[in-house]
Amino acid sequence: MSQPPTPAIQATSTSPNLSDLEHDNWRQLVLATKQEKEQTERSGFKTMTVATNTASGADARMVVLRQVDEVRRYIWFHTDVRAEKVMQLEAFPTVMLVFWDENSQVQLRLTAETRLHTDDHTADEHWQKLWVGSRKTYLSEQTPGSEQPTPYPGFPVALGEDLPTEADSEAGRKNFAVIECRVLAMDYLHLGRGGQRRALFQYEPDRKVTWLAP
Ligand SMILES: Cc1cc2nc3c(=O)[nH]c(=O)nc-3n(C[C@H](O)[C@H](O)[C@H](O)COP(=O)(O)O)c2cc1C
């Protein structure tokens, strides 16, 4: 049986301690990676928007939060190595990760430095834990974002709604990439009837923790 998520710290008339708040934000991120599909109150932190820099400006898209290390302050997500965002990250490794959780009314904006893992132990470890349903998209014969004459489902058409076998799914490994994000700063915003509440937790270059005007 899956457990309902522990509610994030709520706004009250008394301010929460900044260090408790920081710890709770990281705990909520960790919990989001562990939640089950059938859980009724799903955390909004299960997905995030990744904003990147490009030569001509900026880009952004949703991804699934895959793993969180709250002690070292790392976050990981997966993508296809052929995707446009990978090229962008190679040129401009700094990203903004934006989370919104409707239940707790909390937005987190994380500034992070990324590192691409394709043919190494980190990528192997994530790939090993990935179920065949998620591996299926890495079997796509088409480069993400390439023009197509007709709608293309993002995996070999012949598979339809079937899942690949574990052995067949291995063909997707060459297209699989893990993006590791070293978090440099976390900007917290809580929306509440009694007012908003905003705080900064900066880790690099210097540690700084402070309330901010929303
Ligand atoms: C809810 C949701 C979750 C998604 N998760 C991922 C993901 O984990 N990894 C990924 O590469 N794309 C994911 N996508 C697709 C991306 O948003 C995007 O369309 C795709 O990766 C191409 O982006 P790019 O051209 O900027 O590389 C997700 C989309 C949605 C709507």
What are the key terms here?
214 residues; alpha+beta; Pnp Oxidase, Chain A; nine-stranded antiparallel sheet; 34% strand; binds flavin mononucleotide; General stress protein 26; Pyridox_Oxase_Alr4036_FMN-bd; Split_barrel_FMN-bd
N-end to C-end Cα span: 39 Å
Helix content: 10-25%
CATH architecture: Roll
Query: What percentage of the residues does DSSP assign to strands (E)?
Result: 25-35%
* CATH superfamily (homologous) name: Electron Transport, Fmn-binding Protein, Chain A
What order do the helices and strands follow? HEEEEHEEHHHEEE
For the report, how would you describe the main beta sheet? 9 strands, antiparallel
Number of helices: 5
CATH class: Mainly Beta
Radius of gyration: 19 Å
Net shape: globular
Number of strands: 9
Q: What small molecules are bound in this structure?
A: flavin mononucleotide
Label the structural class. Answer: alpha+beta
Average per-residue pLDDT, rounded, comes to 93
Return the domain count: 1
- CATH fold title: Pnp Oxidase, Chain A
In terms of per-residue confidence, which ranges show pLDDT below 50 for 5 or more consecutive residues? none
Region (Disordered): 1-20
Pfam families: Pyridox_oxase_2 (PF12766)
Protein name: General stress protein 26
Domain Pyridoxamine 5'-phosphate oxidase Alr4036 family FMN-binding: 25-116
